[in-house]
């Protein structure tokens, strides 16, 4: 019975984080313009984070933490760098948990940090993607 309760809690946590992420994505782009170099780093880093699926959930969280930390190291925008580090820290802490349920609890406890960091990241990525789409040649 306890295992099922843990799974339901994990599902609820994932749903909550999904809502937070979706609402962040609807926010207007960041105020200061991202440099072209930072946009390239951010887009490449996002692809790395999305492809960082490893064997176990903990290994995947650790790989995502590393991808966000590496991207933060390469971005020059201080605000975006701080946001990426915040997300990397949360993923890194969760990856050290003993189980998926414990990782979910770590993320739940750090939701405020995660949301704050992810909001900065999502705004910057939105700005970069919007710029990329508007600069496509017309047919």
Report the mean per-residue pLDDT as an integer: 79
Q: Structural class of the secondary elements? A: mainly alpha
Largest beta-sheet characterization = none
Q: Output the radius of gyration.
A: 16 Å
String of helices and strands: HHHHHH
Looking at how many chains there are and whether they match, the oligomeric state comes to single chain
Query: What's the overall geometry?
Result: elongated
Number of strands: 0
Low-confidence spans: 22-30
Report helical residue fraction. Answer: over 70%
Number of structural domains: 1
Portion in beta strands: under 5%
What is the number of helices? 6
Distance between the termini: 59 Å
Write the layout of secondary structure elements.
Blueprint: H1 2-25, H2 36-50, H3 57-74, H4 78-95, H5 100-109, H6 111-134
Helix pairs in contact: 1-5, 1-6, 2-3, 2-6, 3-4, 4-5, 4-6
């Amino acid at each position: 019975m306890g295992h099922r309760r843990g799974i339901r809690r994990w599902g609820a946590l994932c749903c909550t984080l999904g809502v937070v992420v979706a609402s962040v994505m609807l926010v207007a782009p960041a105020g200061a313009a991202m440099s072209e170099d930072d946009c390239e780093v951010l887009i490449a880093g996002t692809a790395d984070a999305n492809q960082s699926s490893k064997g176990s959930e903990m290994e995947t969280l650790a790989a995502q933490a590393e991808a966000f930390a590496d991207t933060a190291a390469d971005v020059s925008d201080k605000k975006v760098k701080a946001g990426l580090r915040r997300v990397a820290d949360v993923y890194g802490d969760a990856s050290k948990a003993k189980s998926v349920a414990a990782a979910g609890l770590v993320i739940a406890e750090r939701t405020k940090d995660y949301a704050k960091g992810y909001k900065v990241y999502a705004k910057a990525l939105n700005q970069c993607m919007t710029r990329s789409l508007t600069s496509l040649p017309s047919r």
